Amino acid sequence: MPPSKTEIADPESLVVVGSGPAGWTAAIYAARANLAPLVFEGAPSRTMVPGGQLMFTTDVENYPGFPDGVGGIDMMMDFRKQAVRFDTRVLTEDVVAVDLSARPFVLRSSEGREVRAKAVVVATGANARWLGVPGEERLARSGGGVSACAVCDGALPFFRGRTIAVVGGGDSAMEDALYMTKFAGEVLVIHRRAELRASRIMQDRAMANPAIRFLWNKTVVEVLGEEEIAGLRLRDAETGDESSLEVGGLFVAIGHTPNTAFLDGQIDLKDNGYVRLPASWRTETNVPGVFAAGDVMDDFYRQAVSAAGTGCMAALEAERFLAHG
């Protein structure tokens, strides 16, 4: 059984914080290595639920082993079941504070629980930034044509041949726009300024592509549609005038925020807030015994399959650390 809310139990061998592909994979490997992992899967909130961003994805078609695709929720539930099958213990709570100054480490949860751990895997992922406008969240949750990941969802039949909007002006937005030209009839890049923030090479590639058209000085103020997206309401950033735009899909590419605030600066982070790993192809952080896996340390790939791979790596490294610690 998990420790009580107030008592600090004997140190856990391994605590996994997070429940996306990285967290559950780490738990599966750790459990099969007889480490009896404890997983903080997180508490539901408006923008995150246990299981991570795949819980907001209706169809996953690029994860190996599912030739007909799989629902994101179904996939994460199966990951969880597999971990629990090997006696992984699960707490549906957030870790809100940690003390990593000495081993055993101390983790404090949103329910007032304190847990000590000999090793920790941080797999808390990253939150996609959303526009926060009416219709956006509802259609993103229902699979109605709004997404924050073109590589994840763009190849779905829903988007093929349609006019697709991409919101953003950085490299991620240009990458999404270029990617969507493979499937969409036309790609509209909507940017709130008259110039892009993207690197020059990405700007040149996007602007040279005849399938991409730019709408400058425009912001999205509403996503239109009931069961699926029908269009966007735009506001001109200079004049304030509003207009409607018919589109068959929307990809929001305005960045991600890694879930690292609870670490309170106790492990090294990059300038963009993602966990910094001292050695290539390793998951141990600058604090011995603390490992990071998945999107919380990956600001480049951000895919379910790569997250699961790093979860495996973190568990194997933690096992070796504990064996020699």
Task: List strands and helices in order, with pairings.
Elements: E1 12-17, H1 21-32, E2 38-40, H2 72-85, E3 89-91, E4 95-99, E5 105-109, E6 114-122, E7 126-128, H3 136-142, E8 146-147, H4 150-153, E9 163-167, H5 171-180, E10 186-190, H6 200-208, E11 212-215, E12 218-224, E13 231-236, E14 242-246, E15 249-252, E16 256-258, E17 290-292, H7 304-324
Parallel strand pairs: 1-2, 1-6, 2-3, 6-17, 8-15, 9-10, 9-15, 10-11
Antiparallel strand pairs: 4-5, 5-6, 7-16, 12-13, 13-14
Describe this structure in words.
The chain is of the alpha/beta class and 325 residues long. It folds into 2 domains: 12-127 and 256-324, FAD/NAD(P)-binding domain (3-Layer(bba) Sandwich); 130-252, FAD/NAD(P)-binding domain (3-Layer(bba) Sandwich), CATH 3.50.50. Helix content is 24%, strand content 24%. The protein is built from 7 helices and 17 strands. The chain has helices at 21-32, 72-85, 136-142, 150-153, 171-180, 200-208, 304-324; strands spanning 12-17, 38-40, 89-91, 95-99, 105-109, 114-122, 126-128, 146-147, 163-167, 186-190, 212-215, 218-224, 231-236, 242-246, 249-252, 256-258, 290-292. The strands form 4 sheets. Strands 1, 2, 3, 4, 5, 6 and 17 form a 7-stranded mixed sheet that branches. A 5-stranded parallel sheet has the order 8-15-9-10-11. Helix 1 runs parallel beside helix 2 and helix 1 runs parallel beside helix 7 (304-324). The longest helix is centred in the last third of the chain and has 21 residues, at 304-324. The protein is elongated. The mean pLDDT is 93.
